[in-house]
Amino acid sequence: MEFRYLGNSGLKISEITYGNWLTHGSQVENEVAAQCVQAALDEGISTFDTADVYANTAAETVLGEALKGERRESLEIFTKVYWPTGPGGKNDTGLSRKHIMESINGSLTRLQTDYVDLYQAHRFDTETPLEETMQAFADVVRQGKALYIGVSEWTADQIRAGVELARDLNVQLISSQPQYSMLWRVIEDEVVPTCSELGVSQIVWSPIAQGVLTGKYLPGQPLPEGSRATDEKGGADFIKRFLRDDVLTRVQQLKPIADDAGLTLAQLAVAWVLQNDNVASALVGASRPEQVSENVKAAGVKLDADAMAAIDDVLGETVERDPGKTAENAPRTRVV
C-alpha cells in the first residue's frame, strides 16, 4: 500500500480508502462486512470512510464494530454529516449548528471512538449561513471530536469560501470528496485547480463508475443478477446514467489497455484516478473480501502517457466533463 498526504496537512492516508456506502448495514450481512474490513486491514488499508446517513446510521455501527480492537492511532476514520438521519425531523438534516453538534456525538458513539480524523460536510447547505456551519465545525475540532474537516460535492466557489472561513477560525479544511472516474470528470476544470491552489486534496468516490468500469455490464445484454444495477435499495439509481450501449461498448474497448498494463479493468479504473496529483485516495467499497484484495493492486501503479492518451481516445465523447454538473446534482433545499 502507498500513502499520500491529505491536502496541505501532515496527515497521511492510504491511496485506497475503504468506503461502506450502499454495503454495510444494507447490501451485505454484518459478518461479511466485517470480513471485508479485515481484508482491507490485511492489505494495508488504514483509511476508512463512512457517513451517518448510510443505511440510516447502521453503516457507522457496523464499521465501528468491525474496527473494534484495532490500534486507533494506526487508523484514519472519516465520516460525514448533512443528509437526514433518525426519524427525519425538521432538524435532523442540514449543516445547522444543532444538527452538526448532535450528529458528531451520534457518529462517535456508533463508531466506538473518541474522535474522527476527518469530519465532512456531505453536501452544501443552502439554507444555513456558511459562517454558522464553519463555526460549528471549528468547535467540533476544538473539542477534540475531529482532527480535520472536509467537504463532499461542493463547487469550486463553495470550497473557496469554506477554506477562507476555516482559516479565519484557525482550523484546517483539507479535503473534497467528489465523484470522479474515467467517465465522470466534472471536477477537472474548476474544482481540482481551485483545490490545488488552496491546499485541498480529493478523496474520490465511485472511481469504477458504480461497477460499469469493471466491464461486467455488456451492451445489449441483460443486467447481471445481483449486480448494483439491479439493487432497488439505491444502487440502481446511481448507476443508470452509465448504462448506455455507447458507454458499455467503449468500456469493453479498454480491455487491451488494461491487459498491456497487467491490470483488470477495475484496477485500471482505480489506477487512472490516482494519476491525478490532486487525488489523495480512491474510495473503494466491497461486498466480498476478495474484491478488496483485487482493488488494492491499483495502489502504486503508474500509467504511462501512452496509456492515458489511449484511454481518452477510446472513451471519447462518452466522458462527462461539464463542471456545472456538481451544482446541478446538489440539493437546492434541505431534504427531509
UniProtKB/TrEMBL annotation:
Member of which family? Belongs to the shaker potassium channel beta subunit family.
Tell me the segments the record calls region Disordered: 317-336
Alphabetically sorted, this entry's keywords are: NADP, Oxidoreductase
Q: What is this protein called?
A: Aldo/keto reductase
Give the transmembrane region(s): none
CDD domains registered for this protein in UniProt = Aldo_ket_red_shaker-like (cd19074)
Q: Which domain of life is it from?
A: Bacteria
Species of provenance: Nocardioides piscis
Q: Where is the NADP-dependent oxidoreductase domain?
A: 15-314
Mind telling me which GO cellular component terms the entry cites? cytosol
Provide any one GO MF term from the record. Answer: oxidoreductase activity
